[in-house]
Write a structure and sequence with these properties.
It is a single chain. By secondary structure, the protein is of the alpha/beta class. The protein folds into three domains: 11-140, no CATH class; 148-260, Rossmann fold, CATH 3.40.50; 287-348 and 383-485, no CATH class. Helices cover 51% and strands 12% of the residues. It has 19 helices and eleven strands. Helix 7 (183-190) links the parallel strand 2 and strand 3. The termini are far apart.
Length: 490
């Protein structure tokens, strides 16, 4: 039995779709690079400086080095890397381009253009280039031409989870279009161990190599996701990997026996003899990287605190005018090394909050389970009107900039927890105590209170195990739209 591909595009049209995505990314990078330099040049002119086009235009052409490097890194085709990795690669290529300019200026003779223009252009480009890419991805990620056609191999329990994730996260860049149903998959389903038939809904079914070859011919530059069933014999696993590797330009292997997060690290494959192994990155044990994180915390906290100080005064005045009591509220939390810290918040509750809470839970016993599960209530009677607004926008957390300056917290990290939450962290608590808690974190930009506590713990552990400067920058950039959108906040 074979697949008809009745609604599939022609091979030529599919090739044009791939080219369109690559061209869009290339255009975005060039617009961001040249646009940033142009913007800095305009600002210099407005501030009374001079710009010589005869000098700057030839130097600006060195910026084309960045997209060339990006092309070699595969950033214009195939499966996109994780966002922090993409930011790192874009930062490297942008820096190489400006390094070429710096070498030319150093070796040049005679009158040279202002180096300040290039220093500021380089610095801003490190943020603007990935930002423009993210905007482009957000705008077009739901378009069929943007996403890479993908075939999933296997019949394990992880297949529905993979499909659900790809359907929900279009930014991943993969469009699941077909399911390879091998004879082994069929046998597994007959035994009652396989995937539900619902997973096939809307997908083309491929039954043999001929079907796969037809799919690849129609959809060039496709991707295969091979789900490695944990109970499957080794020959079956190897057969699927060999078949996918033979036909597809990109292959992602998903080990089902690691699907519950036993290894929440970013890993890189290494070989010991003929054995495939995973190398775990341990950035949190690198003193140089930790010093960089601390320096970034201090610079951004001090500069940001001074910039928003008038706004903080307005919030303090609003709190004081609405209800009696102090402006700030101190909470006991667990910090780095398990030490107790006192975090600052703007007061968002009435002065007799604990008494109001106990009365409310006593009168509404059905809500006690909600409180005991997450230590939160969707309709909390203790919260003032100003406090409700502060919580929805997360502005009540701003005084914690002082905790960051003191070294008790970081701008990015797992949210600080109380003693009662230690049991919910379980074995992940040891990882939690390795870092300073943060004002924002992966949990906040991934859904906040819309997620279960178990998901929160998993995200915190993932962040701790995979921390990098680029991941911090990504989380900080995502924090602003999340706060403005008030998603998951109550």
């Amino acid at each position: 039995m074979s697949c008809a591909f009745s609604s599939s595009p022609s091979p030529k049209k599919a090739q044009l779709m791939c080219s369109k995505r690559s061209l869009a990314l290339l255009t975005a990078d060039c617009v961001a690079l040249f646009g940033t330099m142009f913007l800095i040049g305009v600002i210099r002119i407005l501030l009374g400086g001079e710009i010589s086009l005869s000098q700057h235009v030839p130097l600006a052409l060195f910026l084309l080095v960045a997209p060339i490097v990006n092309a070699f890194e595969g950033l214009y085709s195939g499966v996109p890397p994780a966002l922090p990795e993409e930011m790192r690669l874009l930062g490297i290529s942008t820096s190489i381009a400006y390094f070429c300019i710096a070498i030319f200026l150093f070796l040049g003779r005679g009158d040279l253009p202002s180096r300040t223009v290039y220093v500021w252009s380089w610095f801003l480009s490190l943020g603007i280039v990935p930002l423009v890419r993210c905007a482009l991805r957000s705008r077009f990620s739901r378009e069929a031409w943007w996403r890479v056609p993908t075939v999933v191999f296997g019949a394990g329990e992880l297949v529905p989870r993979v499909r659900a994730y790809l359907n929900k996260h279009a930014e991943a860049g993969l469009l699941l279009k077909a399911h390879f149903v091998s004879q082994a998959c069929t046998e597994t389903e007959k035994d009652g161990k396989g995937t539900s038939k619902d997973i096939y809904n809307g997908l083309e079914l491929l039954y043999n190599r001929s079907d796969l070859e037809t799919f690849v011919r129609i959809y060039p530059r496709t991707c295969a996701i091979v789900v490695m069933e944990k109970d499957a014999p080794f020959p079956r696993r190897q057969e699927l990997i060999d078949l996918a590797s033979l036909l597809f330009s990109s292959v992602i292997i998903v080990p089902e026996d690691l699907s519950d997060g036993e290894i929440p690290f970013w890993v890189r494959p290494v070989e010991i003899g003929d054995v495939l192994c995973f190398k775990v990155r341990q950035n949190l044990l690198d003193p140089k990287r930790l010093a960089l994180k601390r320096a970034m915390d201090l610079v951004l906290s001090v500069c940001g605190g001074l910039a928003i100080s008038p706004f903080l005064l307005l919030i303090a005045l609003a709190i004081k005018l609405e209800s009696r009591g102090p402006i700030f509220f101190k909470q006991n939390r667990i910090g780095r090394g398990g030490q107790a810290i006192h975090i600052l918040k703007f007061r968002t509750m009435v002065h007799n909050a604990e008494e109001v809470l106990q009365t409310y839970l006593r009168e509404n016993p059905e809500l006690r389970e909600e409180w005991e599960a997450d230590q939160k209530l969707r309709n909390d009677p203790r919260i003032t009107k100003v406090g409700a607004w502060l919580r929805k926008t997360s502005l009540d957390e701003l005084p914690q900039l002082w905790n960051v300056i003191q070294g008790e917290m970081s701008l990015v990290g797992p949210r600080p927890i109380v003693d009662e939450e230690i049991v919910k962290y379980g074995s992940a608590f040891a990882s939690y105590t390795r870092v300073r808690p943060g004002m924002t974190g992966l949990w906040q930009v991934s859904g906040r209170n819309d997620l279960s506590y178990r998901q929160r713990v998993h995200l915190d552990r993932f962040y701790i195990c995979n921390w990098s400067t680029w991941l911090d920058i990504l989380i900080l950039a995502k924090t602003f739209p999340v706060v403005l959108g008030r998603k998951g906040a109550y």
